[in-house]
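Subject: for your reference before the review

Hello V.,

The reviewers asked for a structural picture of the protein, and I figured it would be easier to keep everything in one thread rather than splitting it across files. Below is the amino acid sequence we used in the manuscript, unchanged from the supplementary table.
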Amino acid sequence: MEMPVCRPADVALLDRYMGSSAATSFHARRFARQEAGRSTYLLAWLDGRPVGHTELRWGGCADERVRAARPGCPEINALAVRPETLRSRGIGSALVRAAERLAHERGRTAVGLGVADDNPRAAALYTRLGYLPLTTYLDRWSYEDHDGVVHECADPCTFLVKDLLASPPRNT
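And here is what came back from the structure prediction:
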């Protein structure tokens, strides 16, 4: 399985194979942040098609309380594996490890991620990977549907952090 950084030509393939719930491509917005130097958009490829993605946001979580609790901590965001039949096969774990390696290579001492309170499966994965709770917060986000209607959302979450000095990323 390959874990490259997103390239311009990948955006249309991500929309095709992984979907985009917005009128303006979810993947194009993440790629634009990468191009602006604010993030790195990592992809998982299997048999020539994208099957997973995550965005490593160098500025950290959007929530001010989270950033204040752990300054300088980049955030792993938008981790997804599709189709669902490919979940629990190590793809998500591999994406997290790839993001950890990037953060470590850039001299970051920790990396974090938010997990929705109603997603115990993801919380269990992150715990297995060595992430510990830092703080709770309300994750606010919006999306534009195919009719152009913007929907505002808020999910209760817990921000988890992994100390990269205590547990350096593996190269597998």
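For the response letter, the relevant points are probably these. The chain has five helices and six strands. The chain has a mean pLDDT of 91.

Happy to draft the paragraph if you're swamped.

O.
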